[in-house]
Write a structure and sequence with these properties.
This protein has one domain: Vaccinia Virus protein VP39 (Rossmann fold), CATH 3.40.50.150. 35% of the residues lie in helices and 24% in strands. The protein has helices at residues 10-15, 21-26, 30-41, 62-68, 86-99, 137-146, 164-174, 191-200, 223-234, 248-259, and strands at residues 52-56, 78-83, 103-107, 120-125, 147-161, 207-219, 265-268, 271-284. The relative contact order is 0.18.
Length: 285
């Protein structure tokens, strides 16, 4: 929870405006969450004709896009894509209309979905379950409720993010004396994500979990831009504070410095590669 009510500085507001927010995300953290989505789709059987899919907390539709642009995608399927962030929903709606995709886009919270019980053959949630209430349990319960018997759920969470410690360190550097929030629930060891799925009704024997890596890859001369966009998204984890506008460049420069020396970062000629890891659970109802 943010511990400050100060509005984001103008630099962050510019990068998170309705016209920029989607591209800001997709060129930072979205570089790895898209890889997670592609990997996780490879863990389930090929989607067949007649499938009814929930792209849950869909963002701009990464999962929807991967499914519908796959050479193996059947003609007869339906996707319901839900999220609560209007710029992302608008981006997906525009893409779906442009390509005449079989997608219904709606603004819905993952904890209180408006779908009937036993609706979906697949419920796919990419890097979002931990945002739902009751430490993820309310979101998991809705996944279980809306899946058909025999349906498949895929959920994932962060295991490691190379740039999170640098974000914390920058916060402590430019905002001395202001605490950085500690997560109430630890998801990084993969235990909690399994627990919420079990507590939601999925049986242990019908669940599989694995860990996998992805990489944010940027050009060395583009690292500062990547860092600035990331600070716009993540610099407010503890809230924004008076003075953040004045320390903006200092924060971004410090973030670049720290990113280059993290254990999860490798620099190869003109490329910087930053590792992120996930835990992914595939569960059958």
């Amino acid at each position: 929870m943010n511990i400050s009510t100060v509005n984001p500085p103008p630099q962050a507001q510019a990068l998170l405006s309705p016209t920029k927010k989607v591209s800001t995300y997709e060129t930072t953290g979205g570089l790895v969450t898209a890889q997670f989505a592609a990997h996780n789709l490879s863990l389930i059987p090929t989607i067949t004709a007649g499938s009814i899919i929930h792209d849950n907390a869909c963002g701009s539709g990464t999962i929807t896009r991967l499914i519908l642009t796959s050479p193996s995608s059947p003609n007869d399927l339906k996707i319901h894509a839900t999220d609560i962030d209007p710029p992302f929903l608008s981006a997906l709606s525009d893409t779906a209309a442009e390509h005449n995709w079989p997608v219904s886009v709606s603004n819905q919270k993952s904890e209180t979905l408006g779908f009937d019980d036993n609706t979906f053959t697949h419920s796919l949630t990419n890097i979002a379950i931990f945002f739902t209430s009751s430490a993820g349990l309310d979101g998991a319960k809705e996944i279980h409720r809306t899946l058909q018997p025999g349906g498949l759920a895929v959920v994932n969470c962060w295991a490691h993010v190379t740039w999170l410690l640098p974000i914390k360190t920058v916060h402590e550097t430019i905002r001395p004396g202001k605490p950085f929030p500690t997560p109430v629930i630890a998801w990084h060891d993969g235990q909690h994500i399994q627990k919420v799925m079990r507590d939601a009704g999925f049986k242990e024997g019908d669940m599989k979990i694995e860990r996998s890596d992805a990489w944010a890859v940027v050009k060395r001369d583009g690292l500062r831009e990547w860092a600035e966009k990331s600070w716009a998204y993540l610099g407010g984890i503890a809230g924004w504070f008076d003075g953040d506008e004045e320390t903006w460049d200092q924060a971004v420069d410090k973030l670049v410095e720290l990113l280059l020396v993290q254990p999860g970062t490798t620099v190869e000629e003109d490329e910087v590669r930053m590792r992120a890891s996930q835990w992914v659970v595939v569960a059958r109802k």
